[in-house]
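job 3f2a | input accepted
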Amino acid sequence: MWYIVLMEDVNIKEKAQTLKEFKLPRWDELPDFDIYMDQVVNYINQHLMALNIDDTDKPLTPSMVNNYVKNSIVKAPVKKHYKRYHLAFLIVVIVLKRVYSLSEISKMIEIQTTMKDSDLKSAYDTFGLYFERCLKTILDHGDLDKTGIHIQNEYQALLLNIIKSVVLKIYAEMIISTI
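job 3f2a | predicted structure (179 res):
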């Protein structure tokens, strides 16, 4: 019942609609050419700004990128150029850091990259699909019981639970911001 009352608030409705329409760029939509730091920051901020509930902070800054590289969470650029895989890793880090520490995110990335038959493209696209489905489900129903995601292995179950925790945090922030 509280869900219905809250979702009738005009501010929540507008933010919820923006989040329902949110899409992470898929692997094939990421730039397939080398880009510089300022282009990386602009690209990611443009695509992830809708996830910022208070709309004040930028999701990514150059110092954050440098910190992620320094701490080996993201690979170093090649001659100051960033590639598609850098963008994918940075997007995942930005989304997950709402809930998880950088050391936990680093461990999650390590698990993914050392898995047998690991494919960065499909892993990244699966992350995006699960994230969008969970976000839409919680905004439509107030819970995550009806995502329609069918789990086939332990990795998918772990990924889904990680994403659910982030989506629940975004949802709670949205509600709290209007109270």
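job 3f2a | Confidence is low (pLDDT under 50) at residues 1-5.
job 3f2a | closed
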